[in-house]
């Protein structure tokens, strides 16, 4: 499986992105004004980040896991935890790490400037799940790499986690109308679009809630769960004041946005 890592990740990415784009068109949750016109810039951020990662850290988190395994590094190895236990536990703990990382990026002003690029999207759809500043992507990789080494997470588990993180980000940012009868049980396990959309409200108290990306339990456990926006899913305003104008959605503006007040 690891030998096919690039193909697995690319295949999952393209498959989920295509599926979400088709479903959003067929079953939209909210009307959109800009819609597809935002996609070139949002995808452009992914392209810039991918090039930067290829230069700075070509091996990625999976490569770090393989290196740690070769060196015999990591808590699970020191404790002799079998792979069938270490794998699933690693996926869950890495998801918990991303939850806390997300909270830190909201709480620390310098990090919020980077993360604000994601929140400044004036509309929400699958492409929003890719809209992260390249520097934030690099910092996130460094945090994940440190956790992977500390845990001694199996490389296969890290690959599964990376694929899940990417797929669920595309899903929970989608402008997709999930029926209430399905959303209610689904969000007991996974972060759904209606749940995560609250996090993109312009109201700060709602923005500082529902931090999870994959598993929804962390927000309930740590008291950051908000079931629905105060103004409703159709009445809520998405984005960050001062960054909703069409010119602000250009790729060059997004890359330079952290320098603005």
Description:
The chain is mainly α and 261 residues long. The protein has one domain (33-241). The chain has 14 helices and no strands. The longest helix has 25 residues, at 83-107. The N and C termini lie far apart (45 Å).
Protein traits:
62% helix; 261 residues
Walk me through the topology.
Elements: H1 5-26, H2 39-56, H3 60-71, H4 75-79, H5 83-107, H6 109-119, H7 134-151, H8 155-172, H9 180-186, H10 193-198, H11 204-207, H12 217-221, H13 232-235, H14 251-256
Helix pairs in contact: 1-8, 2-7, 3-7, 3-8, 5-6, 5-7, 5-8
Please, how many helices? Answer: 14
Which radius of gyration do the C-alpha atoms yield? 18 Å
Uncertain residue segments: none
Distance between the termini: 45 Å
Rounded average pLDDT:
95
Helix content: 55-70%
Topology order in helix (H) and strand (E) letters: HHHHHHHHHHHHHH
Q: Looking at the chains present, what oligomeric state does this protein adopt?
A: single chain
Number of domains: 1
* Content of β-strand: under 5%
Tell me the total number of β-strands: 0
Shape: globular
Broad structural category: mainly alpha
**Most strands sheet:** none
Quick summary:
The chain is 62% helix and 0% strand. The protein has helices at residues 5-26, 39-56, 60-71, 75-79, 83-107, 109-119, 134-151, 155-172, 180-186, 193-198, 204-207, 217-221, 232-235, 251-256.
């Amino acid at each position: 499986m690891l030998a096919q890592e690039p193909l697995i990740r690319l295949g999952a990415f393209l498959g989920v992105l295509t599926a979400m784009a088709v479903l959003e068109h067929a079953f939209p949750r909210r009307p959109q004004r800009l819609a597809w016109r935002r996609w070139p810039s949002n995808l452009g951020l992914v392209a810039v980040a991918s090039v930067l990662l290829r230069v700075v850290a070509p091996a990625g988190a999976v490569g770090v896991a393989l290196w740690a395994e070769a060196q015999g590094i990591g808590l699970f190895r020191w404790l002799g935890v079998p792979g069938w236990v270490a794998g699933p536990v690693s996926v869950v703990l890495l998801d918990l790490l991303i939850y806390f990382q997300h909270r830190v990026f909201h709480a620390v002003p310098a990090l919020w400037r980077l993360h604000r690029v994601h929140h400044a999207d004036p509309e929400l759809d699958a492409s929003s799940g890719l809209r992260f500043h390249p520097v934030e992507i690099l910092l996130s990789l460094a945090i994940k790499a440190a956790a992977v080494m500390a845990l001694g997470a199996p490389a296969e588990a890290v690959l599964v986690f990376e694929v899940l993180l990417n797929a669920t980000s595309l899903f929970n940012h989608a402008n997709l109308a999930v029926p209430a009868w399905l959303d209610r049980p689904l969000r007991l396990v996974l972060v759904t679009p209606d749940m995560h959309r609250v996090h993109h409200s312009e109201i700060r108290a709602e923005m500082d809630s529902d931090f999870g990306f994959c598993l929804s339990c962390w927000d309930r456990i740590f008291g950051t769960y908000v079931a629905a926006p105060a103004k409703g899913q159709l009445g809520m305003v998405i984005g960050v004041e001062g960054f909703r104008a069409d010119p602000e959605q250009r790729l060059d503006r997004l890359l330079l946005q952290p320098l603005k007040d």
